Amino acid sequence: MIRKIFFWSHLVVGISVGIIVFIMSATGVLLTYEKQIIEWDDSRHSVLPLEGEQRLTTDEVLRITREKHPNENHIYIHWINEKGRAIPVWAGKHRYLLSPYSGETLQIGQSPIVELLHFITDLHRWLAMAAEEKSIAKEVTAYSNLLFLFLIISGAYLWLPRRFNWSSIKGHLLFKKHFKSHHAKHYNWHHVFGVWMMVPLFVIVSTATIFHFQWANGAVYGIYGEEAPGPRQRREPVELIDGKQPYESLFTVAKQHAVDNGSADWHSMWVEFGRETENTRFYIDRSLGNNYDAAYALFLDNDTADVVRIKRGSDWSKGAQAWGGARFLHTGEYFGLVGQTIAGLASLAGCFLVYTGFTLSWRRLVSPYLRKKRSLLNKI
């Protein structure tokens, strides 16, 4: 009786949210290596210096950016620790890719590849709906994700064979070579994909709840006796006033600080202007922006180049650290490239689970009705 309840609940819920789950899974596959794709896309604009040509200084890059948007105080320069790499800069929401030697604008805004990734991300999060429908679409994906979690749990129970012996388990654990019918093939695939990707899917789907529900955030922070923060407030930029030190000198100090603090192999360094009066923030990162433990923020005084403060991931509250860990567990990035690959394969398995689930449901619910209808027509 219990198995029957689980089975029909699993079937009904699967049919109800299957299309949304398929969209989230398929887009998850396409976003598997998002950071690496964006990195590669920017690297295509690398420039070889002409003879005697020197890299632009931070001050020169800032001047070029400010000339484009003189009224914008919040500016980012993103240095990549690789010779010839184009320099991404932001003036507010405006992005440019500059030549590191001439300052020439190589690209305005994002490339078509990155724009496509942004669209896929929107599709993943809120079905790429416009502003008016976005809140409704967010609710749809949120509760579909929650029901997907139920499908994983109920599916784990239903996977257990009625007779617990190797012959029964083998049919649910390993792909068969030969099948008597499409139904038998899809039945086997549904069980095999489900069991092998059950744990990764459970991690991916359960961690997604923190993006959708305040109670999930509260649970993560509550484990450590903390209160979950409210929605992030937009920081208003301060007036951008240059100090006594050239920004290139501050950049040199930041690079030396990285060497002295175990980050000599830094991959990128963000320089943020207009965040605080009299200080410049450097975000030194040894990763592609997907590992909080491999990065830290360094604030330098604009007049003296002294270290004002340092903020590492370990300085966050325990709840915030747990939230950050869950965020990268969702994408698999917590375990690096291997984790991303597993997350991508799990998402692909999610697509197959939806497909085989629909075909199995069709055979159980629709095929008998069609056979009965054909039988009645033949009798006429």
UniProtKB/TrEMBL annotation:
**Looking at the keywords, is Transmembrane helix present?**
yes
Q: Where is the signal peptide?
A: none
Q: Which domain of life is it from?
A: Bacteria
- Locate the transmembrane regions by residue number: 7-33, 142-160, 193-215, 342-362
Q: Does the keyword Transmembrane helix apply?
A: yes
Q: Which UniProt keywords apply?
A: Membrane, Transmembrane, Transmembrane helix
A Pfam family cross-referenced in the UniProt record is: PepSY_TM
Question: Sorted alphabetically, which PANTHER family does this protein's record hold?
Answer: BLL7967 PROTEIN, IRON-REGULATED INNER MEMBRANE PROTEIN-RELATED
Output this protein's name.
PepSY domain-containing protein
